[in-house]
Amino acid sequence: MLIPVILSGGAGTRLWPVSRSAYPKPFMRMGDGETLLYKTLDRALRVADEGRVLTVTGRDYYFLTRDEYATHPRANLDHLPFLLEPAGRNTAPAILLAALYARAEVSPDAVLLVLPADHLIRDLDAFAADVGRARALAEQGWLATFGIPPTHAETGFGYIRMAEAVEGLEGRRVNAFVEKPQREVAEQYLASGDYVWNSGMFCFRADALIEAARTACPDVLAAAEACHAHATAHESPVEFARESFLAQPDISIDYAVMERADRRAVIAAGFDWSDIGSWKAISELEPESDEHGNRVRGQAILVESSNCYIQSDKRMVAAVGVKDLVIVDTDDAILVADRERAQQVKLVVDRLRADKHDAAAFHQTVYRPWGSFTVLEDAADCKVKRLVVKPGHVLSLQLHHRRSEHWTVVKGVAKVRIGEKEFLLNANESAYIPMNTVHRLENPTTEDIHLIEVQCGGYFGEDDIVRLEDRYGRVAAKD
């Protein structure tokens, strides 16, 4: 049985301000309105047996991911199990935990197709054909990876040096995995024809990977087995005990297994591929919008400007007399960068984190398991939010020590608890929640609730939430 394994998470710092740690790159929408995660699920379902796809993601992304999957017409959520990581780790722990899960819950010889959720592939027929070739290798015990034939001397990717063909199968043996090269070396790789880019996609049997890890990295495998044994749930979503999860080494599957294993093979991909690693890469996906090489997504006016990429979801952006720029406008932040230095956007995020600025992690609209809230005003004397609560969902039972709140429903009907009283709040009706008062908001209807929340007091931080009960199992997380 072929089971795609989607790896979804990461901060995507080079694509700030659209990608942020609370809403990372897999949830970015492309020009056609689909997210990278949706596109990954779509191609996974094209090749999965019985529509089964396993997703490894962070606990904080679980509800976002399920909501995204639910929009796919071929997705059956009962066949889409989740493994939830309590914290960030590298690919070796994620993939080994997926292999241990598949061996226990499906079959030891289940074939895993590992797909990062932040890649873009458009030629799905060619993708499916290459997956078939990789599957044939995996079924014979090979650890297969997908190499991308280089189109230029790229210094931002690792490379795979290919050796002779695998006898009787379509693929070549792996001679070596090579780190990101300098320009001159990359040009030599390109000219030789023996090198492909390392895509980070793999195909292998669960038992073959586990046995290869037992030889190549027994300590990494032992840590993964201990973590798997301490899973806090055995049905989807599977959660792992934080202590045993963090005891796993922070190491990639390349370093841990693929660089040391014996039976390694590579498929030179026939499909197009982009890892969407920078705003320059994003800009190259858009067709040129004028004769000066400018590319625009959204609304923009360019005057005597050339080779610029402008993305704006809502506002009009005007550029006069500039060239080779990336301009990205979001609700609460604007990025202006030289196209050739787009990789350095991550340094902006480093500065924001050092300053403990919310823009490093959060957008103006923040998504929660129950819906979302948008910050309309954040001043010294008040904070104003617009909340959207999904049907059947409920915020945690909570109180605040340092602020009071005023709720006004603008759409729908809310069920409200304040202290010991429970009542319905209709559109154009308000309620007041004093400090230190237990309260909860619930949507008992089949339509979204929209309401305005005005916070008053001396402090409005999310850490002033004292959570007493929570449907979503959050303890330290914020509403």
TrEMBL record:
A GO molecular-function annotation? mannose-6-phosphate isomerase activity
Q: Does the keyword Transmembrane apply?
A: no
Which Pfam families does the UniProt entry name for this protein?
ManC_GMP_beta-helix (PF22640), MannoseP_isomer (PF01050), NTP_transferase (PF00483)
- Look up the domain of life of the source: Bacteria
UniProt keyword Nucleotide-binding, yes or no: yes
Reactions mediated catalytically: alpha-D-mannose 1-phosphate + GTP + H(+) = GDP-alpha-D-mannose + diphosphate
Domain Nucleotidyl transferase: start-end pairs: 4-286
Q: Pathway involvement?
A: Nucleotide-sugar biosynthesis; GDP-alpha-D-mannose biosynthesis; GDP-alpha-D-mannose from alpha-D-mannose 1-phosphate (GTP route): step 1/1
Q: Which residues form the MannoseP isomerase/GMP-like beta-helix domain?
A: 298-352
Query: To which protein family does this belong?
Result: Belongs to the mannose-6-phosphate isomerase type 2 family.
**What is the source species?**
Tahibacter amnicola
Q: Which PANTHER family match?
A: MANNOSE-1-PHOSPHATE GUANYLYLTRANSFERASE (PTHR46390)
The major lineage groups are: Bacteria, Pseudomonadati, Pseudomonadota, Gammaproteobacteria, Lysobacterales
Any idea what this protein is called?
mannose-1-phosphate guanylyltransferase
Q: What is its EC number?
A: 2.7.7.13
Which keywords belong to this entry? GTP-binding, Isomerase, Nucleotide-binding, Nucleotidyltransferase, Transferase
Give all residue intervals belonging to the Mannose-6-phosphate isomerase type II C-terminal domain.
357-470
